[in-house]
Amino acid sequence: MSNTSKIIYTKTDEAPALATYSFLPIVEAFIKPSNVEIETRDISLASRILAVFPEYLTPEQKVLDALSELGELAKKPEANIIKLPNISASVPQLKAAIKELQSLGYAIPNYPENPETPEEKKVQETYNKIKGSAVNPVLREGNSDRRAPKAVKNYAKKNPHSMGAWSKDSKTHVSTMDHGDFRTNEKSVTVSKAGTINIEFVDKNGSIRILKENLALLEGEIIDATVMSKKALISFLEAQIKDAKAQNVLFSLHMKATMMKVSDPIIFGYAVETFFKNVFEKHGAILNKIGVNVKNGFGDLLNKIQNLPEDQRTAIEADINSCFEKGPGVAMVNSDKGITNLHVPSDVIIDASMPAMIRSSGQMWNTEGELQDTKAVIPDSSYASIYQATIDFCKENGAFDPTTMGTVPNVGLMAQKAEEYGSHDKTFEIKGDGIVRVIDTAGTILMEHPVENGDIWRMCQVKDAPIQDWIKLAVKRARATDTPAVFWLDRNRAHDAQIIEKVNKYLPNHDTSGLDIQIMAPFEATLFTLKRLKDGLDTISVTGNVLRDFLTDLFPILEVGTSAKMLSIVPLMNGGGLFETGAGGSAPKHVQQFNEEGHLRWDSLGEFLALAVSLEHLGEVNSNSKALILGETLDDATDKFLENKKSPSRKVGEIDTRGSHFYLAKYWAEELAAQNKDMDLKNLFTKVAKELEANESSINQELLNAQGAPVNIGGYYEPNEALTIKAMRPSETFNKIIASISK
Ligand SMILES: NC(=O)C1=CN([C@@H]2O[C@H](COP(=O)(O)OP(=O)(O)OC[C@H]3O[C@@H](n4cnc5c(N)ncnc54)[C@H](OP(=O)(O)O)[C@@H]3O)[C@@H](O)[C@H]2O)C=CC1
Ligand SMILES: O=C(O)CCC(=O)C(=O)O
Ligand SMILES: [Mg+2]
Prior knowledge:
The structure is a single chain. By secondary structure, the protein is an alpha/beta fold. It has a domain at 6-141 and 572-741. Helix content is 45%, strand content 16%. The protein is built from 26 helices and 24 strands. The chain has a ten-stranded mixed sheet, with helices on both faces. Strands 5, 10, 13 and 14 form a four-stranded mixed sheet that branches. Residues 351, 549, 553, 583 line the site of magnesium ion (MG). It is an enzyme of class 1 (oxidoreductase). D-threo-isocitrate binds at residues 146, 548. Substrate binds at residues 133-140.
């Protein structure tokens, strides 16, 4: 078999990883006759931790660095990778994973919160590479094409998900900064020739500290730099806390602390300190001494004060309570458990949290577990306006109607760590007052900003080749679907102005005759798109990396109820394919339900869609007709799956992920039996389809019998393999039929 007939299926974390234990054996059996091999690579958080600390492990414990391997593969034409959502770990998640691995006998080091020795610094640096969004940027060697397939849209039109009603009197609103933030301070230049730059901090006395040295830039690369003023941010946050109280709305903070892993935890920390100002003013010395780190959220403070002598702890708790009493209500993540929006920076992630709020009448949970209007605080104003525009639109027009609304596919610029999501190694918390400047080897200052102690300064990059590829993809999608495409770019923003020049330069290289392609600032683009959306019309959004992320949750959640149902393709720039499953995350609360009730509600539709396009890609590239047929029939099976409503239910005792996989297998076998292009496949799967049909009720019964009681799979980040297989494949009858396919 040729080396190229290989699909790499990623093993990740939480609900998607559990689902893989049930789905992958089915896939392996079905694709075997086509001479396509499927291999797994473990890029779970646990595995990524073990991969970078080999010196702490015994020879048997060592694991491959699968992520680096896949990062290299993504640059090769033969790449065909199915990427499931993975944990982008905040520090609290990282620490929990480390603890679990240590308890399993892996002698890996602790995460050093305040590293002092060179050894501790090295350990922290290593962990920082695993922290946050450390997987996607490595694999995304291409731009993004995300859309709701027709079958998914049609299903939503016939079976609309619930949408909370909107009232014209809703007090919900977005609050964002109008000065001193990343948007207002942004500067940007396009580099005319390749070279290297340094980023320097010059203090008030003129002494220079190098923040980043010898950063290589390519010709035509756009760079931008900006700063968030700590003073402006804190006075903004103080004003918003007061205003939320005055308006009697919940205070909620929406950040991307996982993907913006350096800047956003700092901002999150300032919000915690501002909300609990009295606590930090009165007890700052003690909190400092016990190592409270607000970047890890209010939860870090609560955990660390548990070890204080009782009198100190109760004094602090009394002041915490008085902040809650005097301040506005805070939006809750889990009101039963008292977990607020400020507890953990990775609990509320803006791409999912804002659409979820908009879908529920613009409301979030209060401490009583009731829905209430909310002030959504999004400190940086770069993209906040899209949510305000959507809120205004819903107030004016009521909630969207999934039975009649159009769709908004996205073409997103993301290749080669484009824009903000590639900025971590160039983001700095500034220590002292002075100037930060970007300077080239000839001594020319490309950009500079005056800064003050505590400010957050960052630089972003986007290379020319990805921009050209993105423009090409936009034209291709507009042409393929004959749909208007809008570039969401603001000519008044420094970075966007540079991108607009490139769009104007490269668009004429393509045949755009008869196409409707426009450029609009995000606020106007939102209004334009929403109006069309309500009228049942489709509009392609062509955006940068952050808006890609925001819009590919916002529109899917409104249109089809969840971004899990998105087709998410990354045509890799060197010819391979990366097929992401859905556009959302790993849904931690699903695992909790599984552990408690033995019911997993992860919807693998994203996996089905991704596998079909992966097979199609492989079939075309390798002229493998069996792979093509498997892809086509899988798509037809997915249509049938939707028509017959075989997605997992939310409730225990009803069909869950495992049952949904059985039906996918049944329909896939039936489609293979029905096709006449390949007789081998037809004959083989006619038999399989008959057996699945004949055993349908006993398989369903066996699968349902596995529900209703707590399930122990021996771990959260590193579950025990044997226990997980047992839990995820509980139907002997089904397992036997699957095993018989490859015999
Ligand atoms: N591509 C990737 O690797 C991504 C990873 N993440 C990571 O995922 C974790 C959780 O992030 P969060 O922002 O809360 O986003 P999630 O998308 O995990 O959660 C938001 C909500 O989406 C719904 N949902 C998402 N996928 C499915 C699915 N397949 N089946 C059923 N429901 C689904 C659920 O909503 P409901 O209850 O309304 O149905 C869920 O509660 C974090 O660790 C984050 O870093 C996040 C985004 C992308
Ligand atoms: O990589 C991550 O942390 C999240 C990715 C994400 O949300 C997206 O691409 O939509
Ligand atoms: Mg996202």
